[in-house]
Automatic annotation (TrEMBL):
Residues 312-796 form the Glycosyl hydrolase 94 catalytic domain. The keyword Hydrolase applies. The keyword Transferase applies. It comes from the Bacteria. PANTHER family: CELLOBIONIC ACID PHOSPHORYLASE, CELLOBIONIC ACID PHOSPHORYLASE-RELATED. GO terms for molecular function: glycosyltransferase activity; hydrolase activity. InterPro entries: 6-hairpin_glycosidase_sf, 6hp_glycosidase-like_sf, GH65_N, GH94_catalytic, GH94_Enzymes. This is Glycosyl hydrolase family 36.
Amino acid sequence: MSIQFLNRQGDFSLTAADETSYLYFPIGNEGGVMGSITPNLNGDSKIGQNAFLLEPVSIENLHSSNMGRNMWVKINGSIIWSIAGTSGEQQIHQFEKGREEVTVTGGKLWHLVQRRNERIGIQSDVLNYCPATKEKVEIMKVTFKNIGHQRMNLVPTVAVPIYGRSADNLRDHRHVTSLLHRIRVEEDGVVVTPTLSFNEHGHKKNEVSYGVYAREDNKHKPVGFYPILEDFIGEGGRLSWPRAVVCDDIPLCKTGTCIEGMEAMGGIRFEQIYLETEESKTYYIVLSYNGEGLKYLDEFEEGIAFQEMKDYWKKQSTIQCKTSDDTFDYFAGWVGIQPTLRRIYGCSFLPHHDYGRGGRGWRDLWQDSLALLLNDAKGVRNRLVSYYGGVRIDGSNATIIGLVPGEFIADRNSIVRVWMDHGLWPLITTNLYIHQTGDGDILFEENTYFKDSISNRGEGRDGLWDGQTSQLRTYSNEIYNGTILEHILVQHLTAFYDVGEHNHMKLKGGDWNDALDMAKENGESVAFTAAYAGNLATLSELLTWILEKKNIVEVEIAEELVTLLFQSESVYSSPLEKRKVLEHYCNLCTSYISGKKAKIKVVDLISKLNGKSEWIKKHIRSLEYIADEEGNHWFNGYYDNHKEQVEGVYKDKARVLLTSQVFTIMSKTATDEQVSKIVNTMDYYLYDISVGGYRLNTNFEEVKTDLGRMFGFAYGNKENGSVFSHMAVMYAYSLYSRRFVTEGYKVLKSLYLHAMDFKVSRMYPGIPEYFNKRGRGMYHYLTGSASWFMLTMLTQMYGVRGEYGDLVLDPKLVAEQFDEQGSTSIQTFFADKNITVLYVNKNLKEIGDYEIDEIYLDNKLYTTSEETAKISRKDIIELEEGREHTIRVILS
Ligand code: G1P
């Protein structure tokens, strides 16, 4: 039992797929259809929290519900057989030898299940996908084949229960909401249009209809319908043994029938057919929202849609590598489409989900944009600018982004929370954008600030806020605008002063680790204080470029900010003084802002930001670098609500968190010597190859209610000690960025090998949020680790990255990644040009032993005068449009 790759597109197959539980595959599109499907055709389909066509499923419903897609055939008048394997007979034989064979073949983004029953002599091939258009529709193509030795007759019935309402109504008014249903039988199917969208806070007239339609391949229409769930099941029947199919004694409804107030069923009966041996018959089914996509009931249109969908998804995985290991390349191809999936699905809409209500969180939005902009920087620019409108003037932000860019919601559960890491991510993404494009002007674009009643970084309330506006205004009631640079300064300068007793930034509602949420009053995150120090340095580097290359010597910022910028170093060392400065600033702009701008010299800005960055790094190095008796060294990353240092040795056991090391390394707070020691310590305490590599932490063996809910989770799961891909990949990134290449490679390789070890990981190709204590991949597809994986692979491992718009080539590849000819390549888009960088290392030299000898741009020798190998943007822009270009880099 393993995943077999079939071709260079990364299509794969899995035999006996129904013998693994919890497998699911995404079926969605840019039209906003968000579906999932399992080998048994379970899963759901929706276009939002309040519009599910198929009944919502969470992970445990995948094997307990029969409300998914299905089609039945009655064979030779007596055998009842389901393409989903749900008939009692099929279930009895499931674990037996000679049972039905179920093979899943998966491609981007289509899912094919073949179910073969030799005993009965029947096979079904079920293909599901959504077209690449914006139509809200899922296409399902079912082909029956007679694999027996005798002619057979089949009576086919499509059986897809239509839920047609909000996920909230699973329990809340489940029955009453069925009374809203208006069911209409049309020529090709059953459609439900509820009268209202039920919500006790205010019912709304419903606008969405949900339909299941089907046709036989030679365009035959159905002969009748079962539009009501309870009729289809029949008295005493079950969805896994429906009376309508088994006894055939339920009258069929005709086109034109209307029914009010019942649970609906996409029950569609076709005429009896005869299949000779080896003969087959196809049925086209569409799961449609608002009647969209009915043209796909036609064989020809379906064929076009399938090809276009494949082309579309190929374009989404534009970063493609070719190493010595084909399996790695295919795996990376699947990781490559995950950022797009998260853009479509958000964080909630697959069967594994934390919050189940949709929307995208602030930090996820920015980090997903990392990979998205590697593919299409231009397309992402406006979105980045609009996201800055979610920043509050106190440096905190709205946490949820609505469907349209620029639409923000303070918090999904209306809880006042500030995550202290949120200010960090926008600059990380913006910095990448500037380097990839050379577009420093983005810093001087303007946007508004988000306004609600929350003030003083979650610790105050604005009594004057009228609830009418969500944009900050000046005292003269004009909407206030500031540059993106100003927004970034607001985020970092406020954070700098928002410290706890040990002069590290307060943990507040949590940091990257959502589950460190119980130390709001006194907790501190040293890990993310280090990360902010890294960002302060990044910002001053960007400003140095702006000054030197763009000749901008002065910038304008909100007058109120000046106080945060120019404080003496003596203030830095006093948490009390710092908090006073912050309070003063927040009070100045709680309800309104003056609107006055101050002119600041860029040199002053650079020096002030650098000063702050250096001060933090020194402070952390001097206080938080800790050791145990065995000579292991690492950084403490947290203080708990009792103001105690979290990491170290406690009751003879080491308490170590990976996060604390990742951000001290990435921000260059840790010196090179310290990084070496930390690497050994992580290997010693956190490395566990049986679960995919580096765990998030050691076992504290204590439910630390003074730090966070994570300590309530069983060790080895989620944020408590699992191998959490996101942090592991960021660990790899930080190691590569510090030129600890073999160490970084080890992190990625461990994750990849484990993910592809199907017997343990039990997941389709790609990267999961984490591997649980049994090594199973969890929360597949929708994880920020995918974006970081692509970023690390392209810009660090292959070293193909922008530097203020130019293209740098700085390979950090280990010898085993080159094939027998000494080649390895990566394909990406840069300056809108399709570029493949091919590294040739004929003598298979190891990292450290090779350097760049020659560069050929489309076979012409390219000379660069700079110390780092660089191709100027100008030369890339001049390359011919619409074709692939190769940069061949000879290493010696
Ligand atoms: C998830 C969340 C992310 C959070 C992380 C740790 O990670 O989406 O915001 O920082 O858990 O709590 P992901 O699913 O992106 O891997």
